[in-house]
Design brief:
mainly beta; 14-stranded mixed sheet; 4 helices; about 15% helix; about 40% strand; globular
Amino acid sequence: MRATVYRSIRRVILGAVFATLVLSCKSTNVLSDGTANAKLSAKMVIKEHYDKAIDFKTLSGKVRIDYSDGEASQGVSVSLRMEKDKAIWMSAPLGMVKAFITPNRVTFYNKLQNEYFDGDFSYLSKYLGTELNFEQVQSLLLGQALFNLKENRYDLAVVNGTYRLKPKRPLELFKVLFDIEPKNFRIASQQLSQPLRKRLLQVNYTDYQKIHKWILPQEITVAAIDGNQRNTIDIEYRNIEFNRPINFPYKIPKGFKEIVLEQDAR
């Protein structure tokens, strides 16, 4: 049973766990919904989204991850640490699985299987169907848009009480859609799809909350679909603290076997 749990953690790390790592605290109050203003332009909504982006140095705490691949479900609590723009670190109980992500590196090891992976974002990019980098992963975690919204022009509509942004011109390789909630101008939902390849990445943020001065997601759900394979991850964050000194203890144990991913790996 424990081996299955840790194998699931590994798949989460390789698949989309980094889109689900941060920021919730059960003891705080969920912020009330705002009302969308149909008179705002897309440019104004985008400006508010970036003006109200969260700013911090570090965070640390616990996160509950529940993972399902359509056939089996597993859940585990892990320790989480982040230094903004620099590093994301995770550790399962007793350090049986650890992961460490920086702008140029994605690495993890698994003591149950005596194996490790050490590489870049190329595999995660292939798995999710789009080029992926550290900045994009971090944005997902913080309730920000996956892509820089200032680089394209968008049509704006009010849909189900949120501001929906859709590119005026279709992107070359995939489709994107962004819903921004009107209270804090944070992402309510973002979707990236490749219909011809039957790939979809859907990230939903259910409610936002205030912890001290920071506005953070209350709940995050990630669904990654590739053909007939569907992986979902639900997140619950606990005991999050900000701007405290942290470190990232990580060293691949000697004698572990390297995981070599094939070019067509999923």
